[in-house]
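--- STAGE predict ---
source: upstream dedup step, 1 unique chain passed
mode: sequence only
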Amino acid sequence: MKKLNCILLVEDNYADNYYNQFIITEADVCNFIPIALNGLEALDYMIKAGELNQIEFPVPDIILLDINMPCMNGFEFLEKYKKLDEALKSKVLIVMLTTSINPEDRKRAKSYNEISEYLSKPLDIEILHEIIDKYF
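--- STAGE serialize ---
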């Protein structure tokens, strides 16, 4: 299995972040697992990844994006993300990872070309391997 460099977690729930970091670490599929607690922090991370030292802010191979977060939710993040440099975005796979069972959220997610997968929490190693096998 290919080992990725970076998976960015965009999630406001500390327990979910701890769990997702554990799963990703156990799967041994990437080198860096930065965390953004909302869409605004994720957008800031992506801007820095595009402009700054790639060691400190590596461009994520995958973004695991929650929907419901304070400051800027997942959909608001996507609207801002669309405006980022195409060269930066071309390297990133976005997976919406949520507890939302609202059919409108799923429908809305499908309207974004930027979202490759829409998954329900919790993340597990098998799902992570399937995503990496499918896209990388």
